[in-house]
Amino acid sequence: MVAEKHEQIFRNGSKTYYFSSHFFPPAVRRDVYALYGFVRVADNLVDDQPVDPAAFHAFRRTYTEALTSGKASGDVIIDAFLELHRRKHFNPAWTEAFLDSMEHDLSSSTCETLDEVLTYIYGSAEVIGLYMARIMDLSEKASGYAAMLGRAMQYINFIRDIQEDLEIGRRYLPLDKSSLSSLDSAYTQKHPLQFKAFIREEVKRYQLWQKEAEKGYGYIPRRYRIPIMTAADMYCWTAQQIAKDPFIVYEKRVKPPKSRILRKGIAHTLGVALPCRILKR
Length: 281
Known about the structure:
Largest sheet: none
Low-confidence stretches: none
Number of domains: 1
Strand content: under 5%
CATH class: Mainly Alpha
Radius of gyration: 19 Å
CATH superfamily: Farnesyl Diphosphate Synthase
């Protein structure tokens, strides 16, 4: 039942990661489900509207007490994560950084500078890469690249989810170095050239981080590299769609269909996948 609950949370939370994870061996896939269950439940507690700060704080307190005492919390999501935490020797500071970033969303809604964004991204995404590196038992040399992959993927999420975030009063893309003062649709419609240029520059930023992350693929055994590359290629595809038409972010949430994810995973398995590259503008 616990495994089924984890899988359901994963499937409902991210089609890209869920279907890409099918290419992991079963034992690794179960660990990925346990990790995702924990981070998704915490994320939902600060994203679901109306936000219930008390529920998030209770979740964090339950986790902390169980970690400190070494006793089961009674929450199957937290207990499965803690079992994984102990078995794979996660650094507790990673989880504190993750929960800090989630708590940030309870009190602050805007990142004004890139430094603020990177502080948030470390906890919300880079540590996920660090967790994944431990799950796959990778060399410590892979850690920086794993964190960078998490950063790149999260940044595309920020670009993709501009409208969704605006609707709940949030903005994660920094405007301090841009010519824009807002990302509200009514404003950007009046400044179309500036908005398109801004989004394409932010996509380029993602691309630089993604290229850096790819240098770490060589540390990942092939049986694990296939799902990682599949998910990364889907984020690259999302970036392509947005770079072609930046205003699409106001029209829909750009996400690859299941068929595309599975085709790419099979192509990687067969060794015939073509590299994904952002269209140059």
